[in-house]
Amino acid sequence: MKHILSVLSLVAALSLVGAAEAKAQNVQGKAVRAEQLANDNWLMHVTPQETAKYLLLPVEDKAPEAHLKLIVDGQLRRNIDVRMALHKIDYYVPVLLDEFRGHHLMVQAHMNIDRSNRGGVGSEICWANIRLSDTFDQTNRERFRPLYHHTPVYGWMNDPNGMFYKDGTWHLFYQYNPYGSMWGNMNWRHSTSRDLLTWQDQGVALAPDAFGAIFSGSCVVDERNTAGFGAGAVIALYTSAGDVQSQSLAYSTDGGRTFTPYAGNPILTADVIDFRDPNMFWNDDINAWNLILAVGQEMRIYSSPNLKDWKEESRFGLSYGNHDGVWECPDLFPLAVDKSSKTKWVLVCNINPGGPFGGSATQYFVGDFDGHKFTCDSAPQVTKWMDWGKDHYATVSFWGAPQNRRTVIAWMSNWQYANDAPTMQYRSANSIARDLGLFQDGGEYYVSVKPSPEMLAARGKKVSRPTEACELVVDLKGSATITLANTKGEQVVMTYDDDARTFSMDRTASGDVSFSEAFPCTTVAPTHGRIKQLRIFVDRCSIEAFDANGHVAMTNLVFPSEPYNSVKVKGGKATVYEIKK
Ligand code: FRU
To answer: What are the counts of helices (DSSP H) followed by strands (DSSP E) for the chain?
Structure first.
């Protein structure tokens, strides 16, 4: 009781200070007025305006998330979490007002602040700085923003979602936060490309609804109209992440530009906590759809005639591979084996944590699949990794890639530090596109990973030294050391050991490594035989190394204080090409 009383009097004292300060800040210009309510709540009155396009909210990247309710004509329209600025404004995020025009918009915010070590109620600087505006400046402000990797124009990105190819266009959706550069408020945002190199932003495709945020999932083109939304409709299956995780469907009849959530959602539910990331594909062998779903520590496989009604067929994985984390973002597809007439199936399983160097990574299994059950060829204890760097996660493939290609893109980060990477206007990039194959070594099948052919087309003129966007082709005679450095003494050292048959990348002195203890590291990969040539793709904040046969792929982020502009090779010769943009 004594304790409750003292807490109450502390709250009263704080709100007195707050009330005084808030009064002084109550006038926010003509159109937005923030009023302080009890219990750390605020009410913003947004006067409807004919002209203003955006409500701009001031964000402090590392402030706690405030919970905002967007109330339109007295009805709750949307819940969003925004890190409202307390002490300094790192950037603004826009709330698009188009859909509210002519209506009465109010925003109720609960600040969610631990007041014991913060200023009094009302001392937050956000309240005096909320603005209405006709413009939102999307010009790049980040020196680490890659020049030829996909990034969101602003805000946070994680997993690639719903990737498909149709009529010459590659579609990439992705996990996206429109209201900040840290994870939250999951939407699908959409980008398109005709060359896998330059991307056009197509805006938000799916936003949270009553069933929850829009977590990862996949898209297919329903040419046969099995779902009844029209031949050629683009169907998205995604996880609705609310109080529980369930699977929902949305369809697009304009080629993936806009989606309508299906009225019968959710279409797949279960009594488990981690139940997500549906990946579906047409399977000629059973003349029906298959779906693979990550459920805790295993994968569940389903079939369906119509993309809406799913029957569980089997489960895979409880005793297979790495289980040091949650299984996420699955994929399942056939691949031809190099130098053989065989086809095998690859089951992709992204896992976090549990990666070979800590945190997130992509493991896979090779075996057979008959539309009902996946049977792994390897012994249960065998673990195979698709990429041996630290920044390669949530890898899934495009539906419908041309010429039977199996093209994948990864999220180029790691949950250990993704939210702390030293950018603010946007956060995270994707890997370059890669094409997968299969090869054999020592009685096992392995996935080969090669830069997609589009990366050869992107090769520009030969230059004498590395630039901030270049490809190094390194011809090797045996063991070799490749040192990429700048004039500040920052460097990345790559080593090929011809005896041990390993390739490694040391980024401990690569530049800014201070934002996470988990960031500085050396990653090491087996090379499955001799390496004769390496292709190393350098962009402003990433290095992706591949051997010419696709037996090694290694993806690591780097944050040098100036671009690396020299390369020294001991035991080989480097040719540097610019990347055409
Ligand atoms: C993987 C993941 C998915 C989930 C999504 C949420 O990075 O955790 O399992 O759907 O991110 O953003």
So the answer is: 2, 39
Q: State yes or no: pLDDT of 16 exceeds 50.
A: no
Q: Which atom of ligand 1 lies nearest, measured to the CA of 393?
A: 7
Sheet holding 131-133, edge to edge: 91-96, 54-59, 131-133
Closest CA to 456 of 483, 434, 430: 434
**DSSP 3-state assignment of 72?**
strand
Distance CA 375, CA 361 (A): 22
Checking DSSP bridges between strand 426-427 and strand 155-166, what pairing results, if any?
A: parallel
Q: From the CA of 395, how far away is ligand 1's center (Å)? A: 11
Domains of the chain: 4-133 (2.60.120), 155-451 (2.115.10.20), 458-579 (2.60.120.560)
User: Is there a contact between 294 and 330 (Cβ–Cβ < 8 Å)?
Assistant: yes
CB atoms under 10 Å from CB of 208, counted, come to 18
Residue 209 designated active-site: no
What string of H, E and C letters represents the secondary structure of 171-200? EEEEEEECCCCCCCCCEEEEEEECCCCCCE
| Interatomic CA distance for residues 68 and 63, integer angstroms | 14
Place of tokens 């009383």: 5
The one catalytic residue among 61, 81, 159, 435 = 159
Q: What is the pLDDT of residues 556-569, one digit of tens each?
A: 999 999 999 999 99
pTM, entire model: 0.94
The DSSP H or E segment spanning 384 is: strand 384-385
Q: Give backbone dihedrals phi and psi of 238, rounded to 5 degrees, phi first.
A: -145, 165
| Angstrom distance (rounded) from CA 54 to CA 52 | 6
Tell whether ligand 1 has an atom less than 6 A from the beta carbon of residue 159.
yes
Per-residue pLDDT tens for 295-327? 999 999 999 999 999 999 999 999 999 999 999
User: Rounded to the nearest whole angstrom, what is the distance from the C-alpha of residue 457 to the centroid of ligand 1?
Assistant: 32
Q: Say what the alpha-carbon torsion angle 114, 117, 123, 125 is, to the nearest 10 degrees.
A: -80
Helix H, strand E, coil C: the string for 502-559 is EEEEECCCCCCCCCCCCCCCEEEEECCCCCCEEEEEEECCEEEEEECCCCCEEEEECC
**Distance (Å, rounded) from C-alpha 141 to C-alpha 110?**
30
From 81, 159, 272, the mutation candidate for ligand 1 (largest count of ligand atoms within 8 A of CB) is 159
Other beta carbons less than 10 A from residue 114's beta carbon: 7
Nearest to 43 by CA among 115, 127, 169: 127
- Tokens read off for 343: 């086809």
